[in-house]
Specification:
The chain contains four helices and six strands; from the N terminus they run ααββααββββ. With 195 residues, it is an alpha+beta fold. It has one domain: Beta-Lactamase (2-Layer Sandwich).
């Protein structure tokens, strides 16, 4: 007979350094203050925390879906999350606020920090972060994420959003925004000019 392990015991071993170390890797990929590309990610640099890491893709205003997902998040929620919207993991009352924060993450751009608690009569507290990234096409439509469970946190089916904050990336490139042209540049209409 095999050994039976408690999922709660497994989850509570998540090191509190996971968010910092994943964030440090993301930061190391930035060039001249710009957002890193998703293809720049090095799984080896995040090896101790890959079970807590996920990638999401922006699919509309305030909406993202999972592209890749570490085993811890799947274990906490009891399902394979690939292709699912992130909002589906939250109780309905928190989805609009989540969408607003996600949009700020991509448009500002900014790092998004979330403090979560288990919903649906489950127990536990979690911290999640999203770091905006560029797709292969150069648009800010991907994000690296990480979820860490606090000691004693067990499985849940939905999260509650207890607190959210953003860290603006003032020097980040903004591929979705056009910079205004300097004064004195552009075209001038000349009457009688050649076609």
């Amino acid at each position: 007979m095999g050994v039976v392990l408690s999922l709660a015991d497994f989850i509570k071993g998540a090191p509190p350094s996971a968010l910092r170390e994943v964030g440090d890797h993301w930061q190391s990929l930035r060039r001249c203050g710009g957002l890193p590309k998703r293809t720049d990610l090095d799984p080896k640099a995040m090896a101790p925390h890959l079970d807590k890491v996920f990638l999401v893709e922006r699919i509309g205003t305030g909406h993202v879906r999972f592209r890749l997902c570490g085993s811890m998040l799947c274990d906490v929620l009891g399902m394979d999350l690939r292709g699912m919207p992130l909002s589906a993991l939250f109780e309905p009352a928190y989805r609009e606020q989540l969408g607003t924060m996600i949009e700020e993450c991509f448009q500002r751009p900014a790092i998004l920090h979330l403090n979560l608690s288990a919903g649906w009569e489950a127990s536990g507290n979690y911290r999640m972060a999203l770091w905006p990234m560029l797709s292969d096409l150069g648009d800010a439509s991907r994000a690296l994420g990480c979820l860490v469970a606090e000691n004693g946190s067990g499985p849940t089916k939905r999260f509650r959003l207890d607190y959210a904050s953003t860290d603006a990336l003032y020097a980040a490139n903004r591929p979705d925004m056009e910079k205004p042209a300097p004064k004195g540049t552009g075209f001038e209409v000349i009457d009688g000019g050649m076609d």
